[in-house]
Amino acid sequence: MYEAVGRFFSRFAAILVYATATLAVAHAAEPPRLVLQITIDQLRGDMLPRYRDRLGTSGFRRLLDGGVWYTNANYGTSNTFTASGHAVLVTGADTAEHGMVGNYWFDRTLGKRVTSVFDPEFVVSPRSLLSTTIGDEIVSGLHGARAFAVAGKDRSAIIPAGRRGRAYWYSDDTGAFGASAYYGKDIVQWVKAWNDAKPADRYSGRSWTPLDASRAGGTSDESTNRYAVPYPGLGKSFPHPLPDRRDAKFYEALPETPFIDELMLDFSRELVTRENLGGGPSPDYLSISLSAVDYVGHAYGPNSAEYADTIVRLDAVLGRFLDFIDQRVGIGRTLIVLSADHGVDEIPEVRAAQGYDAGRLYPDKILERVNSALKSRFKVNDALVAAFVPPGAYLDRAKIAALGLDASSVESALAEELRGVPGIAYAIKRSDLMTGNVPQTALMRQVQRGFYAARSGDVVIVQKQFWFMYVDPECCASMHGSPYSYDTFVPVVFAGDGLGPAKIARPVEPASIAPTIAAILGITAPSGSTAPVLTEIVEHR
Ligand SMILES: [Zn+2]
Fold first, then answer.
1. Topology agreement, domain 32-64+130-344+502-539 and domain 362-422+424-463
2. How far away, in angstroms, is 42 Cα from ligand 1 center?
3. Is CB count within 10 Å lower at the N or C end of the chain?
4. Domain 32-64+130-344+502-539 classification at class level
5. What is the domain partition of the chain in residue ranges?
6. How far is the CA of 489 from the centre of ligand 1 (A)?
7. Residue 41 Cα to ligand 1 middle (Å)
């Protein structure tokens, strides 16, 4: 009896070993043919579970239910903006190593505010990105692999494409998909043909109405639409009529509706087909950044019916796109990563009405206020602060030197003045961030990891919770960009490629995505990457 059981177990064990070995061999022989990194701009981590009952089975739920879903992923940095978030997602680096302190910063050499992808030679390019990207590493490390990035915004395509990939993004001047001359002067024929057919024009004069009129209220209270800041002409509540294409504003208004994501995925489908992505000798890389959720969230708030409808519509078009990928490449041979560049907060006026201390910071007024305070403190006539580009105040160092003032006294005085501004929680000096002389709190750690001395301000501020802070204080109804949970919380999902299903609740950061992709493919992680690999993904593949 004992012997029989023993034999049974040893035979069972042998079968197990054999099965495991076969599985390992099968996987090793079949690397993914395509790495598909999908980024939903402004998709806070609770949004997909919130609207779960309205989602189909082929879109988001195919990834959430079938893949490995990290339900507790937060950015570990304070600068939760589009450029910084995308940089983290594709480099796995902290700010000092990827360089994208925000969508904008003050360039001390040029003496002006620049965008994250500004390039004096090519208008826009990835030259400000300090680290390699996962796309760069795929092209460098795998023979014949190619990298592409598609987005609704220039920065969301250019940063993921890195220097070795090619970026295409929607132009709100022309409705066409363009690229920077940085990528070469040659016109790509299929892109030209696609643009010549003017596919954006099919939305001319279309009216955006909710898919499910009975739920037009979403989860919002009725006051939300009062505070909406829609694109001029689209209106504060449903239906939102798009202008006619002959109206110069049509191409600018289109991204403020869910239709832009449909267009984006149509273009992506064309790109996969024409470039034969997934058909080469090594896995290709495609980054798709979908931005309608961000535009709509900014305009109507994250609890609006518009935000909910945008997610439901995106789910449907994403489902069709994943069906296409399945037919063409095979979901099992595609490594899919879904995440978001940042979350979002409720409209500050709604927060205030709920009894919270909430409001808006006005950068120009703050600059004026601190400059006049410093003038009287140091008894000078000149402005000592050159710029305030949230979250940084930048000193005019040349002027301070010319006036014979002590730079560190001016820096301290500026921090002190900023601390007195309503809505500002902390004002931290550059010298303290560089030497690590900050309180040992989790929040300060986020600020340090969001800091890059060459581009951040001489004093970095953190707004209080629920306070809206952006270069344009009235651009939008709601905002992100803070170190608080509503801005840092995002989904992280690995799917396809034989992964899942699994739901993992341990805390992780989106920064782990790029080094994990690298580990799966057996290539070097992006140069600036310091985040740990997600071991569940690599070990269970
Ligand atoms: Zn945004």
1. no
2. 6
3. N
4. alpha beta
5. 1-30, 32-64+130-344+502-539, 362-422+424-463
6. 14
7. 7
Mind listing the pLDDT tens digit of every residue in the chain (541 residues)? 344 444 433 444 444 444 443 333 334 448 899 999 999 999 999 999 999 999 999 999 999 999 999 999 999 999 999 999 999 999 999 999 999 999 999 999 999 999 999 999 999 999 999 999 999 999 999 999 999 999 999 999 999 999 999 999 999 999 999 888 898 888 899 999 999 999 999 999 999 999 987 665 555 554 568 899 999 999 999 999 999 999 989 999 999 999 999 999 999 999 999 999 999 999 999 999 999 999 999 999 999 999 999 999 999 999 999 999 999 999 999 999 999 999 999 999 999 999 999 999 999 999 999 999 999 999 999 999 999 999 999 999 999 999 999 999 999 999 999 999 999 999 999 999 999 999 999 999 999 999 999 999 999 999 999 999 999 999 999 999 999 999 999 999 999 999 999 999 999 999 999 999 999 999 999 999 999 999 999 987 7
CA dist., res. 468 & res. 345, Å (int): 9
Distance CA 164, CA 534 (A): 25
The span from the CA of 457 to the CA of 429, in Å, is 9
282 touches 144 (CB < 8 A): yes
Measure 490 CA to ligand 1 centroid, in angstroms.
Answer: 14
Going from the Cα of 38 to the center of ligand 1, the distance in angstroms, rounded, reads 16
Domain spanning 362-422+424-463: CATH 3.30.1360.150: yes
- Rounded to the nearest angstrom, the distance between the alpha carbon of 342 and the centre of ligand 1 is 8
Question: To the nearest 10°, the Cα dihedral for 89, 94, 100, 101?
Answer: 130
**339 CA → ligand 1 middle, Å:** 15
Q: How far is the CA of 341 from the centre of ligand 1 (A)?
A: 9
